[in-house]
Amino acid sequence: MPPRPIVLYKLCLSLVDDDFFKEPMKKRRRSDRDQRFRAFPSVEQSTLKEYEKLESRTRRVLSNTYQKLIQSVFLDDSIPNGVKYLINRLLALIEKPSLDPIYIGFFGSTGAGKSSLINAIIQQAMFLPVSGESICTSCIVQVSSGCCEQYEAKIHLLSNQEWKQELKNLTKLLHRPEQLGREEEDAWDRDDAVEEAIWKLQMVYGNGVERKSYEELLRAKPKGKIPTSRVITLKAEEAGELSLKLDPYIRTQRRGWDEGSAETQIWPLIKLVEVTLPKSELIPEGIVLVDIPGTGDFNSKRDEMWRKTIDKCSVIWLISDIERVSGGRAHEDLLNESIKACQRGFCRDMALVVTKTDKLHLPEYLRERKVGSQAIQSQREAVLERNEMIKLQRNKVLKEKLKRKLPTDSRVLEDSELVYTVSAQEYWQQALLTEEETEIPKLREYIRRRLLDKKRRMVTKYVTEAFGLFLLTDSFSCTDNLQNEHLHVSGLRRFVEEKIQLLEKAIDQCFAHIVQPLQEGVQNARSSYRQILGVCLVRSRGNQGFHQTLKAVCLKNGIYASRTLGRIDLNEAITQPIYEQIDPVFGGIFRSGKPSDGSALMPHIDAFKRSLQEKMTEIGIRNGWKYDSYKKSFLIQEISAILGGLEGHILRKKRRIYESLSTSVQNDLKPCYEEAAQITGKKACERMKDVLRRGLDQQVDEGMFERAQERMQHQFHQLKNGITEKVKGSVTTMLTLASSQGDGLYKELADVKSECKEMEKLHRSLREVAENALLRRGMQDFLLRMSPSKSGPPKTWI
Ligand SMILES: Nc1nc2c(ncn2[C@@H]2O[C@H](COP(=O)(O)OP(=O)(O)OP(=O)(O)O)[C@@H](O)[C@H]2O)c(=O)[nH]1
Ligand SMILES: [Mg+2]
Fold it and tell me: What is the domain range of residue 719?
């Protein structure tokens, strides 16, 4: 619904009030801008500033135009369609956030060195807690830099409802069966899942929780103070001060230790910690570094958040200890999870960051060393040689793996450098390596490059779209032949209908690519599910201590994740053979960019867009619009803007579609999980496994995998409908606009002539800014090549 005039008027007044346009403020903003880009070398700073200036000027022109338009139609009885459209589009553009943050996920097993690496990157030794002895970071921690002077942290807690649910599940795990044999009693006691549950409850409610029921605990008063807002805010002037305050909330508390402080008493309720640093020299605003533990969590809400956090990252750095990077189940699992994030989420970029490269035992290395003709003289040479070797090897292995899983033209495959070898310890000590050689500066450069890239793309799109809107204002005031136009618009309508039908067919054909791999996957899944279940149920330690963990798995509908025990996801494991088959094709359907053999979705939409734009041009010419008439250009621009929005829609749906297989299986197995979760008493573990095996057999016989296939195909079908509906809707708007010329709008629009001119100028300077950026980059590269040390960019910014 378009905003009501009165609302618009208020908004317009608030815009007039905005200090933005006042002179002294302008100065302050300018210096703010300079501050914000301190993280960048001067060449990049200039480019960013130019883009930022372009954006803020465009925003100002848009606001001015918006105000003028609103004031001119405010008292009118009816607002012409074209102006309504314009007002809404202007408002949408004005409200568009400047830049969505770029989330960079530090994803890796415990002890891999994630927190240490973040500390090094933000140049704050020991800021986030690190530990060499046990699991350290207990929850997802986001670190970003803001514009204020203080250090700030927000600790987000589970809501009341979410905690109740957690409590229910934890107490179910504790529910001790009445008659146990001695042997089972022992096994029961040793189960880690139970210990973890008791420990969490003890922390919140104190001793004796084992004997309390869910209802009793609901009535019990937590030891710590839980704020009703469910957010705790900490502030400090110094990094060290905040770090101390924050430590007990983030650091995993050890079992069996004393009660601890008041902060630790709410620790099981913590969902997410957000840390904001003051303006940072090293991490530009708009970047969020996310410390993500390698497994999810027993708590469903936290587990869901874990997944969502991985999925919202546009960059994932897989963090791996140098000693574990080759082979190792955990590393493979994490790599697979990251690749999945590329399939279902927003992740476009991935890199392997090998940590602790300083750890090298020279005699051992020399003995093992097979390559290299030169003699190694020192520890340092050995470290550097090993880094090179690891890069070569892992780059190759990773690329091959990604190629198998992702479509061949994925952006991540274009990156020549997929592997970084870093040492956070040496960054501080520099006993062996120079700062450059620790590769921490390289990671910072990677971060800056991503931000600069995003800013460039965003501002270019923004200015182009804004310019498009001004073309509309001009198109209303031109004097083409109205009669003729109506004729052509109805012709255009027929043309569009035909094209939409063609688009539908093309999408059907594109989605049809998934059917065969799906079918093959289903066959594979049918023949291997028993074996997979067997492996999941045995676990390395056999039955001992597995009873309650299995119960936890069932209570959580097949997914159990614990920081100490790792992650078990039965639904995903069982559907894995299908995913193996569909992965490359699935990725192919959603790849962005180059047109290909018809298996990708976006090129079809692009083709539709082009045919529509060509038709517009053709009609424009026949219709006597001036060849470069504003109206035609506007319509062409708007088609791009509207259809461009489809990409976001498709990206958001992608996740649902991808997950539909495991979700479908989870749904079908729900009764069987529930039945198994109820089992207590003698030989409970065996009986649970039996129920799972039988339940699964029965479901597979009744077509569980085929149903999963159908559901995925259904999701694809819905996506197609969504796309065509959206396309139809937008094209209808376009056609209305195409025929709304001459609505007597000249009166309102005459007013915004100067804004039009200014916008035209801004649009022209887009190219100039891009050229300047290129030129500066070229000059910088030249100077670097000429400089004798070749030791990276000038460090004026540190
Ligand atoms: N030698 C060496 N040790 C390192 C380096 N980076 C981290 N460590 C050590 O590795 C241990 C684990 O580091 P953390 O940063 O706590 O690891 P993490 O990945 O955050 O672990 P969790 O929080 O448990 O998930 C600590 O003892 C660190 O001092 C490094 O570059 N070199
Ligand atoms: Mg950590």
Answer: 478-736
* Ligand 1 pocket member 132 (CB < 6 A): yes
Q: Which tokens hold the place of 611?
A: 């045919």
With respect to residue 139, please indicate whether it lies within any of the assigned structural domains: no
* Span 55-78, pLDDT tens digits: 999 999 999 989 888 887 777 777
Please calculate the CA angle 783-784-790 and round it to the nearest 5 degrees. 145
Residue 727 lies in a domain: yes
pLDDT digits (tens, 9 = 90+) for 768-794: 888 888 888 888 778 877 765 544 444
Nearest ligand to the CA atom of 112? 1
> Hey, how many other C-beta atoms are within 10 angstroms of the C-beta on 240?
14
**pTM for this model (two decimals):** 0.80
pLDDT of amino acid 265? 79
Instruction: Please return the burial class of 357, using the count of CB atoms within 10 Å of its CB with bins 0-12, 13-18 and 19+.
Output: buried
Q: Looking at ligand 1, which residue's alpha carbon is closest to its atom 16?
A: 130
Is 324 a pocket residue for ligand 1 (Cβ < 6 Å)?
Answer: no
User: In total, how many domains does the chain have?
Assistant: 1
Q: Are 620 and 629 in contact (CB under 8 A)?
A: yes
For ligand 1, atom 5: residue with the closest CA: 356
Amino acid code (one letter) for 43:
V
Ligand 2 ion: nearby residues, β-carbon < 5 Å: 115, 136-137
In a domain, 614, yes or no: yes
Name the closest ligand to CA 109.
1
Which residue type, as a one-letter code, is found at position 381?
A: E
- The answer to whether residue 598 is domain-embedded is yes
Quick: pLDDT tens for 355-376.
999 999 998 888 887 665 678 8
